[in-house]
Amino acid sequence: MTVGTTSRLAVIGTAGHIDHGKTALVKRLTGVDTDRLPEEKARGISIDLGFARLVTPAGVQVGIVDVPGHERFVKNMLAGVGGIDLVLLVIAADEGVMPQTREHLAIVKLLGVPRAIVVLTKSDLVEPEWIEMVMKDVRALLADGPLAAAPIVAFSSATGAGQETLLTEIDRALAGVGARSGDEPARLPVDRVFTMEGFGTVVTGTLWRGHVRNGDALQLLPAGHDVRVRRVQVHGTTVEEARAGQRTALALHGVDREQVGRGDWLVAPGSLQASSILDVRFELLADHPKPVARNTRVRFHLGAAETLGRLVLLDAESVAPGGSALAQLRLEAPVVAARGDRFVIRSYSPSHTIGGGAVIEPVAQKRRRGSGGLESLAVHERGSLDARLVERLRELDRPTATAVLARTVGESEAVVLTSLGRLRSGGEAVMPTDGRWLSTARWTAARETIGREVSSYAASHPGRFGVMKGELKSGLKSAMDGGLFDSAFDALVSDGTLVQRGERVRPAGPEWTPPAELMTVLERAESELEGAGYSVPEAETLTAKLGASGAEALSLGLFLARLVRVSGEYTYTTRQLDALRGSLARYFEGAEGLSVAAFKELTGASRKWAVPLLEHCDRHGWTMRMGDERKKGGRLA
Ligand SMILES: Nc1nc2c(ncn2[C@@H]2O[C@H](COP(=O)(O)OP(=O)(O)OP(=O)(O)O)[C@@H](O)[C@H]2O)c(=O)[nH]1
Ligand SMILES: [Mg+2]
């Protein structure tokens, strides 16, 4: 069998009560007995998922997932029906509608399986009038639901009666299956894991989204392992690429058999994030016997995963049968979800399906009841993409990449980018740094806060050009994110609102001139230093001599580059160092090497000053240390 790019592919799942003939039906259609476990053979029932392939008369390559009907294995059934295109709801004509017929039907509806065919099996065991009656029951069961128009086919695995009609109906149903978008990030729920000679760990599942190629890097969630695809199979054939909607087997490099299990996800790296807390819309089944309380222990089913946890209602004390509520799922282990994912909720013990719903926030924070924020959740649930993005930007306190925004609102990057462009034109969003977005409100507030801080510093420190950037940033640490500070600061400087000189920054406006009194003190400092030759006084002595504004004047001198700090202890005037540089240049005109002794002679300073001065000369490339001597440095013109 070859799977060409033009082949049409689809996934079909069975559903229905135990012993109603699902596995016999699959065998009749495909020749494959999907009950392969010894225990399944011994007990004559299906326990786990079974897989088979079928090519329909119209040439559609179909992967069939056969599920168990036993009420104890609904968990396994749930692992198989996610992502299918068509369900065959199997009802034995002799028994009619039974408990798991109802439960499986409820699950299929909760998960939003888009197409169904009802197959009345064992038609050979009953009279035609009886079949008519069962059909009526089925019509009543499906009435008013999304599957009300599903065809009903009488069928017998024993005689083959109805087989042609069934295949015709399958082709008719699958004719409506469009190619799923392959452009989105890949996402595959793992429903089976095994090892294969020569290929190591192999996982299978229905590819929900995107495409997977040989050699692709993927992420295994929730554990977070990085893996590489070393072989791709679709419907049993090795291919270059698997696309959304196909039964896919992937041989993986980078994980052992023990590190992968049913319920895990393979996703495009970075496209989804695991979380134990989700915000959801919860719907209680209409035939549930009683309301569900505010805080209920439940089993959460999404993809092929079952996770225990609590369902906490957010906007109601309880939900009545047929009703719904905003709710938070607080789970005992992280799960991998996307906005809009459909899920199923089962009771904890005894376990049976009670409802389900759709994910609103796949990665949520614990919400306290009555703490508000439900309006925002409502926007995320039902709002337009623009509205949801505005809401998301409002919640984010730093410029955020388009890809991250796309992930958190559960839409493709291209669509999100278009919407952001619209929001920018409308003045609701800004892109302060390339490819990162922020709400206009946060952006304006950040700029104003920085501007205010810079102005107030300048006003209270007239002797300084302005505040140091680092000091400003750390002072605002609790008020704004570091990334936001950097972008807002850069923008303020580049648009001329702030003026930066070195590390200091002040508001634009009249030219800054240092106060005259301070300049006088600085001039006194200069003459103190120059009066001492190269044997300048130590920092503390100098400051003490200058009086109260001594330290301030020295720091002004450094900022104006009239003073230079040579070491922790010694500061010189720029003029002194220029002169030193000149003497060195002249010295090297007549000599190759400079010893410490010669330097002492040149400067008239003792070792205490000579050593830090020489080190300063080394640092500036005026001299170059070679053993005990200095050579002429490259920067000494
Ligand atoms: N006479 C008759 N027997 C059938 C037909 N379909 C299934 N059976 C029998 O019914 C029994 C159960 O069939 P299965 O196909 O295993 O039922 P199932 O729905 O897969 O059961 P689970 O997977 O355990 O839920 C078997 O003994 C089958 O031989 C049919 O069309 N006619
Ligand atoms: Mg079976």
Layout: helices, strands, pairs:
Layout: E1 9-15, H1 22-30, H2 38-43, E2 50-55, E3 61-66, H3 74-81, E4 86-92, H4 99-110, E5 116-121, H5 128-142, E6 152-154, H6 163-174, E7 187-189, E8 192-196, E9 200-206, E10 211-213, E11 217-221, E12 225-234, E13 237-239, E14 241-243, E15 247-253, E16 265-267, E17 274-284, E18 292-293, E19 295-302, E20 305-313, E21 318-319, E22 324-336, E23 342-347, E24 353-361, H7 374-382, H8 385-395, E25 400-401, H9 402-409, H10 413-425, E26 429-433, E27 436-439, H11 440-460, E28 467-468, H12 469-475, H13 482-494, E29 498-501, E30 504-507, H14 516-531, H15 539-546, H16 550-559, E31 563-565, E32 571-573, H17 574-590, H18 596-603, H19 607-619, E33 623-626, E34 629-632
Parallel strand pairs: 1-3, 1-4, 4-5, 5-6
Antiparallel strand pairs: 2-3, 7-16, 8-9, 9-15, 10-14, 11-12, 11-16, 12-13, 12-15, 17-22, 17-24, 18-21, 19-20, 19-23, 20-22, 23-24, 25-27, 26-27, 28-30, 29-30, 31-32, 33-34
Bound molecules: guanosine-5'-triphosphate and magnesium ion.
